[in-house]
Task: inverse folding
């Protein structure tokens, strides 16, 4: 009887150990799957990056593509600030009702408006450093003679490349916050929601790649593969980083800060693109492209919402 009881206890311990090991293995597989899918979600941005290698684009086509990208960026600005302000306003309401400390709400407000300032003025400083101090004075528009088409074209291409980088940086901040949302869903045990977010953000990122590539589409000097990979990593890589960090640790302040930085940066670059678009094409084509970009942005967001994310 004693032997039988001992054998039973031994079997139970083995079963418990096997169950724990299997559970741990499943957890690791789910976690690795999450990180892999988070990376894929970010790197679908590469789907929209081949645009610059398209040849023989007419002036009207380039103008429309630029406007279409502006429409996508305007949608992203609306989407970004709606999420950032929802969290900030919620904290302020909770503080007013006495549910949380007033200091917590103030920190969220500082993160919101401080992030916008960082996004806007950070790119102002970046553009000043790269376009004024580092570009030779001979290439400045003031010194370009009307008949010197070569210098004018060279300055235009340098500006286009800088603008593409700025758009990638702004979208990178946005995608970092999206990655945080994916990782936090997983940390909360909502794997299904995390998967839906991954699918939705993957669709969004494909259109964002188009927005990044738009300024350098149709240039006489085609961008190198290395440069396109750099744009993809800057714009899409933060999704994976955010997924990793969000699955381990989450802060509403960080979430709000990165969203607002992205919003401020995208306001800046969209205004630059609009200024360029006014010179490239007619106002009717410009507005048509912006409308089309907005429709695509809201349509992809609607798909995510209908999916339950």
Result:
């Amino acid at each position: 009887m004693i032997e039988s009881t001992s054998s039973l206890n031994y079997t139970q311990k083995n079963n418990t150990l096997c169950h724990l090991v299997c559970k741990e293995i499943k957890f690791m597989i789910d976690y690795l799957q999450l990180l892999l899918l988070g990376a894929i979600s970010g790197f679908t941005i590469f789907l929209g990056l081949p645009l610059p290698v398209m040849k023989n684009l007419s002036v009207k086509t380039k103008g429309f593509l630029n406007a279409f990208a502006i429409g996508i960026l305007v949608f992203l600005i609306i989407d970004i600030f709606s999420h950032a302000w929802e969290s900030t306003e919620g904290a302020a309401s909770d503080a007013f009702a006495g549910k949380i400390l007033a200091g917590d709400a103030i920190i969220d407000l500082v993160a919101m408006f401080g992030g916008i300032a960082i996004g806007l003025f950070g790119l102002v400083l970046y553009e000043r450093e790269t376009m004024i101090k580092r570009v030779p004075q001979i290439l400045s528009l003031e010194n370009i003679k009307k008949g010197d088409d070569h210098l004018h074209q060279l300055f235009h291409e340098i500006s286009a490349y800088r603008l593409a980088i700025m758009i990638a940086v702004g979208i990178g901040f946005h995608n970092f916050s999206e990655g945080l949302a994916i990782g936090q869903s997983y940390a909360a045990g909502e794997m299904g929601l995390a998967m839906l977010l991954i699918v939705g953000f993957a669709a969004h990122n494909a259109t964002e790649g188009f927005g990044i590539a738009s300024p350098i589409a149709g240039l006489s000097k085609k961008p190198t593969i290395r440069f396109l990979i750099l744009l993809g990593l800057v714009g899409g890589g933060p999704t994976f980083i955010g997924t990793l960090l969000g699955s381990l640790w989450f802060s509403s302040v960080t979430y709000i800060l990165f969203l607002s930085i992205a919003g401020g940066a995208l306001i800046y670059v969209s205004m630059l693109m609009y200024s360029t678009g006014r010179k490239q094409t007619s106002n009717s084509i410009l507005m048509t492209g912006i409308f089309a970009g907005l429709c695509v942005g809201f349509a992809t967001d609607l798909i995510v919402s209908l999916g339950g994310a």
